[in-house]
Design the sequence.
């Protein structure tokens, strides 16, 4: 394998490193694969190297190999709240598809970071364990839910999380407690992944409850979600709610509901949801976000902060950004 130590890797060496990574992860890696088909909103360019990790061993190996080869890397779950740029993502993009879950005595739940939140919540309901019922309609994976402190209907992942298994920047496996994440509203210290830790799995404390009542509550949440949130290809709530108000209300009051930019439009059903009608691009989405921020600020003096993670486009004069080393996990 290549041992790249300089800060500016020549193109030929970078291409060789990408090929070496694909060889090292044979069967799980692909060069130049499109990310649009994996994104919930259906936009985004190619990954230099795309790795689909179906088990924790492959996930850890992919990160360690990328580090050894000097390739930038990121780990994602469902790409449910991340705007992938049209220029794609450089280096190794690792999609976590680890799905194992284990319900233990006393309401303890252990789940891989790639487990689907909806499926885990449904299984908990059927087993008579409360604490995740609010998540029955929540897209994405357990790892993404932890990193983003996902929540709905008054519930949050941080309220039931006990501990997590993480891969440290140095490559060691560590177990951390809930306080370590520094949770805030829809955020943890790992959002944006500046510290380059990777969540591998999480442990939750649930509580016993009547399955019939949990099912009824789940059905209520699903109905409310269907009434309040539009169908279509979306990244969910685009903006965080500002203190004491709602982003959707402000966007609607600014007269922007239904506004379109290219193939992306603001939903007529709920103004905080942006919909891809099929031909939208990340550039369309970004332009619409900037227009909303500008007009809402001009009208109400409120600067809306994105709830989604908007990854930057590569500069036109550096379409591959081969020399950038620092990226999030």
Sequence:
């Amino acid at each position: 394998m290549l041992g790249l130590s300089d800060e500016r890797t020549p193109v030929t060496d970078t291409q060789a490193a990408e090929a070496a990574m694909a060889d090292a992860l044979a069967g799980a890696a692909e060069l130049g694969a499109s990310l649009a088909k994996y994104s919930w909103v259906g936009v985004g360019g190619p990954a230099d190297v795309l790795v689909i990790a179906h088990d924790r061993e492959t996930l850890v190996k992919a990160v360690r190999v990328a580090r050894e080869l000097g390739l930038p890397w990121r780990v994602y779950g469902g790409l449910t709240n991340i705007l992938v740029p049209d220029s794609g993502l450089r280096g190794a993009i690792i999609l976590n598809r680890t799905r194992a879950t284990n319900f233990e005595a006393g309401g303890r739940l252990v789940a891989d970071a790639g487990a689907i939140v909806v499926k885990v919540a449904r299984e908990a309901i059927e087993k008579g364990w409360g604490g995740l019922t609010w998540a029955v309609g929540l897209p994405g994976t357990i790892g993404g839910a932890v990193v983003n402190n996902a929540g709905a209907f008054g519930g949050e992942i941080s309220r039931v999380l006990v501990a997590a298994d993480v891969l440290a920047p140095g490559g060691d496996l560590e177990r951390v407690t809930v306080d370590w994440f520094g949770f805030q509203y829809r955020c943890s210290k790992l959002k944006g992944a500046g510290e380059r830790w990777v969540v591998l799995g999480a442990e939750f404390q649930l509580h016993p409850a009547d399955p019939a009542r949990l099912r009824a509550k789940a059905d209520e949440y699903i109905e409310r979600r269907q009434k309040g949130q539009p169908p279509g290809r979306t990244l969910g709530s685009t903006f965080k709610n500002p203190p004491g108000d709602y982003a959707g209300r402000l966007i609607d009051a600014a007269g922007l509901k239904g506004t379109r930019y290219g193939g992306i439009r603001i939903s007529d059903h709920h103004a905080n949801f942006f919909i891809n009608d099929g031909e939208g691009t990340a550039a369309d989405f970004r332009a619409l976000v900037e227009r909303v921020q500008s007009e809402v600020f001009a009208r109400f003096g409120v600067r809306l902060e994105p709830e989604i993670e908007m990854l930057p486009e590569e500069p036109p004069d550096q379409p591959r950004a081969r020399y950038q080393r620092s990226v999030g996990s």
Notes: DSSP finds seven helices and 18 strands in the chain. The two ends are 22 Å apart (CA to CA).
